[in-house]
Amino acid sequence: MKITICDSCAKLGIFVAHTEVLGTNNGHGVLEDDLRLVEERFSSEDPERLKENPVVRAYRDFYWRIGIDPTKTRPAGEALRRRIERNGKLPRINDIVDAGNIASSSTLIPIGIYDIAKVKGEPSIVLSKGGEIFYPIGKDKPETLRAGIPIMIDEEKVMHIYPHRDSRITSVEESTRDVLIVGAGVPGVDKEIIKNAVEVTTSLILKLGGKQVHEIVIS
């Protein structure tokens, strides 16, 4: 699967690393040891020092650039690390989603995982035209997007608001077997860091079974 980035988004410094795993098995509890290791590693971290981390700083700067206040809406990796410090635990959703949360909290890179069976055609990252409908995970009501927002779309719908919100329409469920894994890159974060985050996610998902169908691609 190929992900295309439009010129306007490329000028914002947007890039992604991505791969696919086919034929995996989803469920609960397989990655419990991995979850606990991450929780133990970061449970005593000072959350205020996260702001000094260059990766966190890069995502915060990008958020400001696209009109999001990162002190109110935290970048994904930072939010997960703060959750560990606050609660001592990551959420347990299902094994595939847990893999993404482990990787994101470890690397501070936003990881999106999408059910390939729900994706129509090949995704692209574009700026919204305004009026697109987005169905966010965790919300009952859809949202109508304003113009100029970086989004990942397929041939039919919005999959993701870049780099921090996923649609429930393409979300992973317990029946999911084939997944697209995407690491979200922004200016100031080296491509190898994004690639490594996708590698971590992929290796965790492969513990559940399945096969990685191609090397990680950077777009």
UniProtKB/TrEMBL annotation:
Name assigned to this protein: tRNA synthetase subunit beta
Residues annotated as transmembrane: none
InterPro entries hit by this protein: B3/B4_tRNA-bd, Phe-tRNA_synthase-like_B3/B4
Any GO MF annotation of the entry: phenylalanine-tRNA ligase activity
SUPFAM superfamilies: PheT/TilS domain
Keywords on record: Aminoacyl-tRNA synthetase, Ligase
Residue span, B3/B4 tRNA-binding domain: 58-210
Organism: Candidatus Acidianus copahuensis
A Pfam family per the record: B3_4
